[in-house]
Amino acid sequence: MRVKCIVSYDGTRFSGYQVQPNKRTVQSEIEAVLTKLHKGQPIKIHASGRTDAYVHAVGQVIHFDTNLMIPPEKWPYALNSLLPNDIVILEAEYVADHFHSRYDVRKKEYRYKLSTQKMPDVFKRDYSYHFPYKLDVEMMRKACHHLCGTHDFTSFCVAKTEVVDKVRTIYSIDIIEEETDLIFCFTGNGFLYNMVRILMGTLLEIGQGKKTPDQIPAILEGKDRSLSGKTAPGHGLYLWKVYYDN
User: CATH code at 56?
Assistant: First the structure.
């Protein structure tokens, strides 16, 4: 039977989602617990996508196959009782055997949290990027209009990547203003490695007047990573929600 889970995790003390030798990762922690529940039988999980070191998830989706007859509502309790407290299984359900958490994704939403107050907040230091500089939010919103749509996002992807097709569709980019915080919401059919963080770095340069919104089309056309902004830090980024047909 195939189980689909919604997973939340604090990425602060992880070297990313994917298993790495001698590193603490989200995948390795969950798989270790599943193996324990299955009396030593290795259980592999599949996620909607990878997240980097320090990146958080509110609604990551995974699936795995099992022969255990556990009611779906009991899976979160069984897993959470053994998982470390920076990973929580929020929901679980049985799905069709052909369901795949990665290949069946229709769209994803990422959010990036920016703290703009003058002095850093010690309680936000792992969960938002402190950026105490003046920003023109309207200029950033204009840039977002140029970024939305279907484009080749080579300029917004790490230069060294095995991915050949870099065409993606961004459905929307919204900027929410909350007191001293700015929250950037990116929704698209998929995102390249570091794409959201590079988009954020570019938007910050536009907000500071170092680039203009009208430069975005040329940056996209240039298909050159050196044309876009710096990569924003991982700790402000959240995989917020993953959407499927149902």
Answer: 3.30.70.580
